[in-house]
Design goal:
Length: 723
Amino acid sequence: MIRKIIIGVAMLTIISTGLRADEGMWLPLLLREMNEPQMKKLGMKMSAEDVYSINKGSLKDAVVSFGGGCTGGVVSAQGLLLTNHHCGHGRIQALSTPEKNYLEDGFWAKSLSEELPSQGLFVTFIVRIEEVTQAVLAGVTAGAPEKERQSAIDKNLETVRGQVQKESWQSAFIRPFYEGNRYFLFVTETFNDIRFVGAPPESIGNFGDDTDNWVWPRHTGDFSVFRIYADKNNRPAAYSADNVPYRPKHFLPISLGGIKEGDFSLTYGFPGRTNLYLPASAVEMQVNVLNPIRTGIRDQILGIIGAAMRADAEVKLQYTSKQAGISNAWKKWIGETQGLKRVNGLEQKRRMEAEFKRRVAANAALNAKYGQILPELDRLYAELTPLGIHRDHFNESTRQIELFRLASMVDGALRFKETQGAEAAQKRSAQFIGAMKNYYKDYRVEVDRQLFELLIGIYFDKVPAAYQPQYAIDLYNKHGRSAAKLTETIYASTMLSSPNNGLALLETNWDKGLEELQNDPALKLYREIINTGNDKIMRPATEIQERITPLQRAYMQALIDVFPEKKMAPDANSTLRVSYGKVMGYRPRDAVRYEPMTYLDGVMEKYKPGDYEFDVPEKLRSLYAAKDYGQYADNGRMPVCFISTSHTTGGNSGSPTFDARGNLVGLLFDGAWEGVVSDYYFSDEINRSIIVDARYILFVIDKFGGAGHLVNEMKLVPGKGKR
């Protein structure tokens, strides 16, 4: 009996401490009821009302979704906006030319008139959040078939959206939370006139590039500056020369005092996706089985692109965004696998599941309701795993072939013509042609040929023949099962590898061009491979996932019911969230301890003249040599970055990070490699969010960039007892 009690207490300890103070990306609407006491205990000096309010200006009114994939913060009464350099990278690249290379040289607008319109860029504010669970799930029968359930929910969603009280220029959307057990409504304002104001050169904004990505210690000034414009009524409007800087409900004061180890920190942003409540079987499949497939293929892709970028400056400009996107996921997946092993995450999850089963078995009502959930989930993930292996080989070997992406554009136009008619297709022709032109702008056939040879070889080698189209098998056999020979034939005969061929045809005569291109050998190979893969791999995998979905929803509710002592944050889903923790160093491995702050000294230690990752601008070296840091120094040293235990993920890039009083102390831009497994399993032992220090941002803008007029727009809060 004593032994049973001891085991029970031990298990309870595991469970109750499984959700750490730092864990979770919380809905700001619910902070007062779920988090405020704990946040105060950790050191927060402001109130939940200061973080989120619909009655007064609050931090939420200065936080935006930037371009739909990042976060930004408003830092002046004139709509000045800070986000990461890598978030603005695509826009900066699009505005750059070989003559005016803003990526390489940086850019600082000296006045409003010099700020550059960024076509297609938008930011979105959250006006308010409301729970609408009861209305959305009204009439939904427990245990109903999934399609019937979703049909009822869709009707309810339409009704709720139609009843939303909002202004004519505002929008609204509803998202499921807790795997569809709860629903929340978001009323938004989206501004489409966003102008580029300034950014340091890549040698600061992307210092360390791929080598330092996901790595601590970090020394990157990862920031860029934009401005939100509105009409004269301060409302969203399309770009116009008559628009004026936006006047926010609240803008962020910036601390000159910075932050130190042990201090409370809060991060506010739009995290993309986490999967914290998956069973251990699912995490093992994703992290230990599938991640090595993805990383192995991308490692080879990056080798080809990296060599081409180092050999040619023009290729570097064209491929820098592509390389960053491929590399970012590659390195993250590696970190997930290593991190899961480092903290014994799977074993911890299995212990939690053992306690879950014990509690369920001990309660007749819970057992009747939830007793078979975990065994069935485990069975389905075992069924999904082999298909997942084929799926990832298929996806990674075909989706990175640029010729296939061009083929998909033509295929899309042909399908549109087939379904909508020739007249409708003709009306959309400019749109299709524009998309292809834009893609060719950053396309090099000599790089793509190498990628095609590599990836088509992987496809035929790793995707089982049963999942390949007979046309492709015959074609490969015809070329002696040689990827090199097949590549030579395809690129010698396709019209899609140069804008002077296929694109020129479409521009000259749209209908005739489409007719000729539909027999293009690259398009035919693309169609056969993709259609067969979708039919034999993707569709069956999706069907299994659809059987998993209702079980995962039930499991989520079961966790809430079975562990009532735990407060559980919903998984991230690209909606506005708050995470919090402390500034803290960590031990990545035996006998190694990382400090939580980095300084400009470390930039100079990494300096490699002429190296595109670690070169340092001459002016920055001069400022360092003179210790000319102005008001931004900390005891004679220039802070660059710091780390926090706050729980964040992709989409949090650019998220404002605050001190205990709500002053901006930095912009989050990355996570430490050892802790990226926090998308699946959180451990405050190794989870660290990486943040560029606001003082370094101000220093670079003012002392390096000579754009002190931008700093003069901001509200700077003096440091108390500067260290």
